[in-house]
């Protein structure tokens, strides 16, 4: 048993079987989209004022990191970046050279991304030496002043200007954006506004749902006042979900669903 395994008994050396139900590395020519989040029993994903809450237990958190490693990219909204200051890496996984972190994508229409973000500092510090630390790519509106775009590029990020629709990045534009960026899959982690936007998105032009899979971790706890999975007032016309599989990982229930 390695020293790492001794220090972390939950450190699985191979991915949990539940992840075989999603196939982001499949043969499909279109980008594969997984929507995922962790929630409490009262359907909250964060505390009051957006305070980050650790909902996932060690086993389901590890599953999330394995899931990250199976996708080409990972996407969060700018509020999640500002509130959580996440790294979006696979630091819970074994030190195996075949494993790499997904490419971080931040949806940030107005380019509010701070130059002090942890994810950017980690990238600058790594100087591209590790497959586990990736350069953050920020998708911003194509109206954003070039001086501001240059400021972020000089700070180390890649800025990708895209057309906006009603001030937002249209979820249905994402597959084409991913293809243009040579990314064949994305794991969308949140937050609430992003989850709602993708769950409400119309189907792709071929009639199939925009989102291929929904993976939800339900933690046995209540948050009370906090950020709901879906923002207040946006709960109408939610898609119908079909459960593919539910499994307990440690204390949590993990559900794999598809939109029908
Ligand atoms: N438990 C979990 O699994 C997770 C929890 N979280 C939590 O979620 C919270 C943040 O959620 P929330 O405040 O809703 O913010 P989001 O992280 O969802 O970011 C929303 C922002 O993204 C930008 N945006 C770009 N395109 C879109 C689009 N199509 N639809 C919606 N927004 C778009 C907008 O920026 P602009 O306003 O500049 O136009 C918008 O305000 C945090 O508290 C975080 O802790 C986050 C991820 C996972
Ligand atoms: N799977 C999961 N469980 C939780 O309990 C969470 N709070 C989250 N949050 C998401 O993970 C991001 C932080 O991850 P890193 O610290 O960067 O590894 C956070 O920003 C949310 O996207 N997820």
From TrEMBL:
<dbReference type="GO" id="GO:0009231">
    <property type="term" value="P:riboflavin biosynthetic process"/>
</dbReference>
<comment type="pathway">
    <text>Cofactor biosynthesis; riboflavin biosynthesis.</text>
</comment>
<dbReference type="Pfam" id="PF01872">
    <property type="entry name" value="RibD_C"/>
</dbReference>
<protein>
    <recommendedName>
        <fullName>2,5-diamino-6-ribosylamino-4(3H)-pyrimidinone 5'-phosphate reductase</fullName>
        <ecNumber>1.1.1.302</ecNumber>
    </recommendedName>
</protein>
<feature type="domain" description="Bacterial bifunctional deaminase-reductase C-terminal">
    <location>
        <begin position="31"/>
        <end position="254"/>
    </location>
</feature>
<comment type="function">
    <text>Catalyzes an early step in riboflavin biosynthesis, the NADPH-dependent reduction of the ribose side chain of 2,5-diamino-6-ribosylamino-4(3H)-pyrimidinone 5'-phosphate, yielding 2,5-diamino-6-ribitylamino-4(3H)-pyrimidinone 5'-phosphate.</text>
</comment>
<keyword id="KW-0686">Riboflavin biosynthesis</keyword>
<dbReference type="GO" id="GO:0008703">
    <property type="term" value="F:5-amino-6-(5-phosphoribosylamino)uracil reductase activity"/>
</dbReference>
<dbReference type="InterPro" id="IPR024072">
    <property type="entry name" value="DHFR-like_dom_sf"/>
</dbReference>
<dbReference type="InterPro" id="IPR002734">
    <property type="entry name" value="RibDG_C"/>
</dbReference>
<comment type="similarity">
    <text>Belongs to the HTP reductase family.</text>
</comment>
<keyword id="KW-0560">Oxidoreductase</keyword>
<dbReference type="InterPro" id="IPR050765">
    <property type="entry name" value="Riboflavin_Biosynth_HTPR"/>
</dbReference>
<keyword id="KW-0521">NADP</keyword>
């Amino acid at each position: 048993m390695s020293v790492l395994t001794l220090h972390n008994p939950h450190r699985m050396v191979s991915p949990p079987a539940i992840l075989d139900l999603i196939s982001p590395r499949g043969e499909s020519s279109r980008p594969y989209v997984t929507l995922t989040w962790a929630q409490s029993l009262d359907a909250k994903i964060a505390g009051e004022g957006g305070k980050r809450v650790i909902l996932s237990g060690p086993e389901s958190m590890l599953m999330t990191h394995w899931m990250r490693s199976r996708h080409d990219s990972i996407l969060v909204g700018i509020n999640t970046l500002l509130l959580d200051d996440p790294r979006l890496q696979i630091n819970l996984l074994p030190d195996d050279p075949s494993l790499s972190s997904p490419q971080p994508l931040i949806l940030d229409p107005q380019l509010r991304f701070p130059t002090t973000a942890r994810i950017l500092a980690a990238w600058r510090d790594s100087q591209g030496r590790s497959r586990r630390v990736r350069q953050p790519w920020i998708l911003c509106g194509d109206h954003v002043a070039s001086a501001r775009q240059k400021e972020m590029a000089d700070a180390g990020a890649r800025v990708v200007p895209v057309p906006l629709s009603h001030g937002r990045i249209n979820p249905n534009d994402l597959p084409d954006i991913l293809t243009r960026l040579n990314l064949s899959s994305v794991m969308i982690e949140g937050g609430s506004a992003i989850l709602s936007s993708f769950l409400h998105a119309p189907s792709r032009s071929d009639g199939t749902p925009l989102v291929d899979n929904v993976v939800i971790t339900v933690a046995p706890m209540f948050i009370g006042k906090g950020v709901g999975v879906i923002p207040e007032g946006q709960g109408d016309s939610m898609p119908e979900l079909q459960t593919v599989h539910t499994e307990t990982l440690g204390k949590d229930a993990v559900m794999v669903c598809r939109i029908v």
